[in-house]
Amino acid sequence: MKILAIGAHPDDLEILCAGTLAKMVAAGHEVVMCHASTGDKGHYEMPPEQLVPIRRQEAIAAGGLIGSRVVSLGLKDGDILADRPADRSLFIEVMCDEQPDMVITHGPNDYMPDHNAVNRLVFDTTFLATLPGSSSRGRHAAKVPSLFYMDNLSGLRFEPTLYVDISDTIDRKLEMLNQHQSQLVWLKEHDGVDVLELAETLSKLRGMQAGCRYAEGFIQHMAWTRPNHIRFPV
After folding, report:
1. What is the chain's alpha carbon radius of gyration, rounded to the nearest angstrom?
2. CA distance 70 to 61
3. Which of 24, 125, 140, 197 has the fewest Cβ atoms within 10 Å of its own Cβ atom?
4. CB of 66 closer than 8 Å to CB of 40
5. Rounded CA separation 127/108 (Å)
6. Which residue ranges make up each domain of the chain?
7. Span 87-126, pLDDT tens digits
8. DSSP-derived secondary structure for the chain
């Protein structure tokens, strides 16, 4: 099975679902990690032309720890718009390129505009990519994939419909997140947050709810064609 995980920024997937992605790879599935933005505004000191290559390499290093290919859509922080045709086209093309069986992305009620825009774009284009003529390259996605929403940063107003026990991959999750050194600094400066501690704490909370040591929570999007034959976790 092929899983396409799409976050707004290069470190979002590592924070919110990397333990699950690591389990999926270990189970023999193909995982592609995609970020919509280059992360160009994620530092007070480094200008975008210096920061973007660093963040790209951090993301590649994190994905490499589980053997996952990393894709960037090349948008800019704060400039991801669900109603802009060019942005929609980028998401359609990645759906056609990757042909996923399952997509994981942000929930619809996250804390920042980029996350919410990615949620809308993924929901729209996982369906639209299956239509003839949707791709500028004359292709289409073979099916509407199953769609799952990953947790948000504090778990507020997010009630998982399923949990994945990541007790055996929590160390790998934190190792992947630790590759994003530029953001460990940025999140402390901008939000006053130790993101490694945050990710571990949230995983402990979801683990307590699920009856294990560490877990990640997800909500499955339930609508016609969306559940299809995929059952998650796998």
Report:
1. 17
2. 9
3. 197
4. no
5. 17
6. 2-220
7. 999 999 999 999 999 999 999 999 999 999 999 999 999 9
8. -EEEEEESSTTHHHHHTHHHHHHHHHTT-EEEEEEEE--TT--SSS-HHHHHHHHHHHHHHHHHTTT-EEEEEEE-TT---TT-HHHHHHHHHHHHHH--SEEEEE-TT-SSHHHHHHHHHHHHHHHHTTSTT-STTS---SSPPEEEEEP-SS-TT---SEEEE-TTTHHHHHHHHHT-HHHHHHHHHHH---HHHHHHHHHHHHHHHHTSSSEEEEEE--STTSSTT--S--
Question: How long, in residues, is the chain?
Answer: 234
Does the pTM surpass 0.90? The reply is yes
Q: In 10 A of CB 34, how many CB atoms?
A: 25
Residue type, 90: L
CA distances from 60 to 15, 20, 65, 67, 200 (A): 15, 18, 9, 10, 22
> What is the C-alpha separation between 23 and 234, in angstroms, rounded?
9
Query: Quick one: pLDDT at residue 231?
Result: 66
Choices 3.40.50.10320, 3.30.505.50, 3.40.640.10, 3.40.50.1980: CATH for 2-220: 3.40.50.10320
Distance CA 104, CA 217 (A): 12
Tokens in use for 40? Answer: 């160009």
Model confidence over 156-205: pLDDT tens digits?
999 999 999 999 999 999 999 999 999 898 788 887 889 999 999 999 99
Say if CB 174 and CB 199 are below 8 A apart.
yes
